[in-house]
Design goal:
The complex is a heterodimer. Chain A is an all-beta fold. Chain A has no helices and eleven strands. In chain A, strand 4 and strand 5 form a beta hairpin. Chain A starts with a strand and ends with a strand. By secondary structure, chain B is an all-beta fold. Helix content of chain B is 0%, strand content 60%. Chain B has no helices and eleven strands. In chain B, the strands form two sheets. In chain B, strands 2, 4, 5, 9, 10 and 11 form a six-stranded mixed beta sheet that branches. In chain B, strands 1-3-8-7-6 form a five-stranded antiparallel beta sheet, with no helix packed on it. The chains are: A mainly beta, B mainly beta.
């Protein structure tokens, strides 16, 4: 089945230690999104890629970076995680800028010690 | 600019009772509207969506929603709740941002189903 896969599902890191979260998709979608979701809150868009075109949300901290080496994979890098970065990180895809439906992965829960 | 308001952060119903989760939106352009469900430690799963056409939209697991432009509402309903419906529900409206569509989510409604 075509799907969005996130690895790992659970990630524990130490304060200030860089961490990378991974997302892959078999849907061959052009657009990939990263969301941050804190407990009991709505998902908050961090950035998205349309193909290789990177789009950062205005309020996304510089501590968050992303890479998309090819259509299938996208990575979220947190350069120096703080306690406030503990959250669920959701990856999503959509076919293109016309299609409004987004398909979500299962998420990676990040714990910062 | 777009926004979504979900009335009621927690809703509790008895098994077999009607489920009604409220969503009101604000949009400067004709909206595309979505309901997503999220189970604990899972991603978001699309329940249903309204783009154009018929205003009553049927989704998975027996849920449906009606787009009412005059009321700027898109409430989610299910005639008979099941224990497996207990989850977090998010209403969302989409709009364009840069080169892609962007979802603006409501704050979510946690549905509890009791025996």
């Amino acid at each position: 089945d075509a799907m969005v896969i996130q690895n790992p599902r659970y990630q524990v890191t130490q304060f200030g230690k860089p961490v990378t979260l991974s997302c892959s998709q078999t849907l061959n979608h052009n657009v990939m999104y990263w969301y941050q979701q804190k407990s009991s809150q709505a998902p908050k868009l961090l950035f998205h890629y349309y193909d290789k075109d990177f789009n950062n949300e205005a309020d996304t901290p510089d501590n968050f970076q992303s890479r998309r080496p090819n259509t299938s994979f996208c990575f979220l890098d947190i350069r120096s995680p703080g306690l406030g970065d503990a959250a669920m990180y959701l990856c999503a895809t959509s076919r293109d800028h016309v299609s409004n439906e987004q398909f979500f992965g299962p998420g990676t829960r990040l714990t910062v010690l | 600019a777009q926004s979504v308001t979900q009335l009621g952060s927690h809703v509790s119903v008895s098994e077999g009772a009607l489920v009604l989760l409220r969503c009101n939106y604000s949009s400067s352009v004709p909206p595309y509207l979505f309901w997503y469900v999220q189970y604990p430690n899972q991603g978001l799963q699309l329940l249903l969506k309204y783009t154009t056409g018929a205003t009553l939209v049927k989704g998975i697991n027996g849920f449906e929603a009606e787009f009412k432009k005059s009321e700027t509402s898109f409430h989610l309903t299910k005639p008979s709740a099941h224990m497996s419906d207990a989850a977090e529900y998010f209403c969302a409206v989409s709009g364009r941002t840069g080169t892609a569509s962007k979802l603006t989510f409501g704050t979510g409604t946690r549905l509890q189903v009791t025996l």
